[in-house]
Amino acid sequence: MKFTLFSLKILTVVLTAIGFFYVTPAYCEQQFTIGFSQATTTEPWRLLFNDLLRKEARKHKEINLLMRNAQDDVSMQIGHIEEFIQRRVDAILVSPKVSKAMTPIINQAFNNGIPTIILDRGLDNDRYTQFIGGDNFFIGQEAGRFAVKHLGGEGKAKGNIVEIWGGMASTPARDRHNGFFQVVSKEPGIKIVGKLKDGDWKQDKGYLIMSQFLVDHPQIDLVYAHNDPMAYGAYLAAKDVKRENKIAFIGIDGIPAEGVRWVDQGFLDATFLYMTPGAEGIRQVLRLLKGNPVPKHVILPSMMIDKTNSHEILKQHGLLDTSG
Ligand code: FRU
């Protein structure tokens, strides 16, 4: 068969067309710019949150992620959202430091038509696209039920409890308090002692607050701290005055390398899993940006962690110390 110049030209056109259709979808895959503002990176829980979010985002070539750390500073975090609005990002993920002061700017992004997903800490209204996080009221109730059982059981429980609050201006702290209080306040033998103290989720503040409680209250039977770092800080304060063995310590978060380990080592009596919402945030935002409906609330599951399951969890995560 003879190739004329004409048939060669036709072949070239056909091959180019095939190549075009074959290659184009990959090149033209829609890109999404997603702005993410994290409240802080002080606690290991936040580092795990960022790590899992980043890992999930890396699985999707179409995501261009802008990550910001507000360093516990509300005005810095407001600045992040302003930046995202100005850049017209395709979506915003935000874990707000506090609810009230962050609500107006996040509402503004939402009102400007930018899909806005709130992670872990809530706002003061529901003008956002989606919330993803744990059920803090329920976790507070579960902690309350643990406390009642530990102090003698329903109707018979007796003892003095101190509560160390996370950031009072944030929804998880308020919900964790309300859930806990609803359960323990039904017990006439239980007294919550000590002044309201905001530990801002920090271990060193947990230590300082507990040091003062120990001076003021010769009898403390149980500490309920709104997260594991503060519970551990409280434990260390009690240990310094040799009272740690007379007190039970409850925290929240249950991340393997931190709270679960502390339970396993016998420093904390229990913690409650509070899953980080980063990976789910990426999955949900992609679904949304690809035109699929998403629910208004995604509630992440929790579980109690005490001596009965801490070892197994550490094993599952390859965190058992086998050196000794
Ligand atoms: C980390 C943290 C967690 C806590 C969560 C509540 O910054 O304090 O320990 O569970 O935030 O928003």
Q: What descriptive keywords fit this protein?
A:
324 residues, alpha/beta, Rossmann fold, 2 domains, 6-stranded parallel sheet, 45% helix, 16% strand, elongated, binds beta-D-fructofuranose
Give a brief outline of the structure.
By secondary structure, the chain is an alpha/beta fold. The chain is 45% helix and 16% strand.
**SS element count, helices:** 11
Could you tell me the mean pLDDT? 93
Query: Total number of β-strand segments?
Result: 12
Helix content: 40-55%
What structural category do the secondary elements indicate? alpha/beta
The unreliable regions are 18-27
Total count of domains: 2
Ions, cofactors, ligands: which are bound?
Answer: beta-D-fructofuranose
Query: What assembly state would you assign to the polypeptide chains in this entry?
Result: single chain
Kindly describe this structure:
- With 324 residues, the protein is an alpha/beta fold.
- The protein has two domains: 28-120 and 276-293, Rossmann fold; 136-274 and 307-316, Rossmann fold (3-Layer(aba) Sandwich), CATH 3.40.50.
- Helix content is 45%, strand content 16%.
- It has eleven helices and twelve strands.
- The protein has helices spanning 5-28, 44-58, 74-86, 103-111, 136-150, 171-184, 203-216, 228-240, 256-264, 278-289, 310-316, and strands at 32-38, 63-69, 91-94, 116-119, 130-134, 159-164, 190-192, 222-225, 248-250, 271-272, 297-300, 304-305.
- The chain has a six-stranded parallel β-sheet with strand order 2-1-3-4-5-11, with helices on both faces. A four-stranded parallel β-sheet has the order 7-6-8-9, sandwiched between helices.
- Helix 8 links the parallel strand 8 and strand 9 (248-250).
- Helix 2 packs parallel to helix 10.
- The longest helix is centred in the first third of the chain and has 24 residues, at 5-28.
- The chain is elongated and about 90 Å long.
- Residues 18-27 have low confidence and may be disordered.
- Beta-D-fructofuranose binds at residues 40, 43, 45-46, 120-121, 166, 170, 172, 201, 227, 252-253, 274.
